User: Fold these one by one.
Assistant:
Number 1:
Amino acid sequence: MKRARAFSCIIVFSAILGGCGKDGSRSAVQEQGASASQAPVPPGQAASDTAAASGAQAKGALTSVNKSQLPSEAAETLRLIKAGGPFPFSEDGVLFRNSSVLLPQHPRGYYHAYTVRTPGSADRGQRRIVCGGPRRQIGDCYYTEDYYASFKRIAE
């Protein structure tokens, strides 16, 4: 009886160790919040092909949006940025690292992120405005409606 149990434990342990590092464990991590831009690129496929297929924005491919075309909640967020607050969320104004380099490159600390309220959402939602330069300046701002996967430059 003890031998059967020990053998069963060895089989289970081998199965667990054998599954580590395989694609199955990687896909579980991706389902827990990794975006399409963070997904591994299959061999033989260019990263730009992956971005195009997923709808992600290519680096340096910024489009523009006029302030009048933004949702009214984004216009309110811009007003709050210019006034210096008060902001509805404690996370507003935090450092935005631009680690995906979708925005023009600047030294660390240049960009700050602000929440754009989403009607009907119980949390902060996915919409943000990221502004660069000194606080209270809205001359170098970008709008994202897909939680930093793509950006539109906000034009005057």
Note: Residues 20-55 have pLDDT under 50 and may be disordered.
Number 2:
Amino acid sequence: MKIELKIKRAGGTNITMADNTEISFKPDETGAHVAEVANPNHVQRLLTIPGYVVYGTSEDQPAQGPVETKNATEPGTPSNVSPEDVAPPTHPHSDDQKADDEDGVFLSDMTDEELLAEHIRVVGGKPHHKAKRETIIAAIETAEDAAEAASKGSAA
């Protein structure tokens, strides 16, 4: 099934699902960023995340009813996997400091699930279970600044 990502990044967007399946959203001839997603569990999970829609529908008119696919079970995918077992995809981080950010995605615009995934990727672990969004964002920015400073220091 074709899924469209409404967030458009230069060159497209690559995501990794919880089972390490890579999905690439690339611009098509109309400029829409789309990917063919064969696994029905992945389709169902993506459609629960704002910004992902069935190709050809708008955000105002999401797909109705259960998602149907030609290939009901993908080889290597257990039939007892539920949507709760499939973690949200992780996105490459956009630089929250730049005013001219090309892809337009800021940490403050991420969903809680995307923010959690970004924290795990950048900081190296889950945030405290009582941490507020602002605290999580600050931790991500601090870790990125430290990594950038370290890379500049090693390049000199």
Note: Strands lie at 2-5, 13-16, 22-27, 33-36, 52-54.
Number 3:
Amino acid sequence: MHGAGRTAGNVRSDVAAEDIAASHTGIFTVPLPEERLLNLLMESLRLTARLT
């Protein structure tokens, strides 16, 4: 998925798959709402963040 997103120009090119895996691990080890952290991670991977 990461490679396809990069190829399509939807995902930042400076983020490696290993960065995403490490971030997922971190998200599910902290006592905060996982959905909020996951949304923050996904937005940070976009080439251009959506402002909502």
Note: The chain is about 60% helix and 0% strand.
Number 4:
Amino acid sequence: MGAAVLFTGLVAGISMTSILATAVSVPLLVAVILGGVWGALVLSLDRWLITLPRPGHSLGRALWRAMPRMIVRGLLAA
């Protein structure tokens, strides 16, 4: 599970760096820094979302804890 979270953050950082450097024409150093920040943000958010569900809680509590995932999924789907 850890490798999947790490790989997601890495791919997000590389993608952001590539987009900033090519499509937006940001200088490479700035693109690398912003891509690294973006990758760290995605890594942190993904790790937090993965650790949210815990067994043994009520259905209402599980739905409440799943709400951030639903919001992120809705934003990404839009």
Note: The two ends are 27 Å apart (CA to CA).
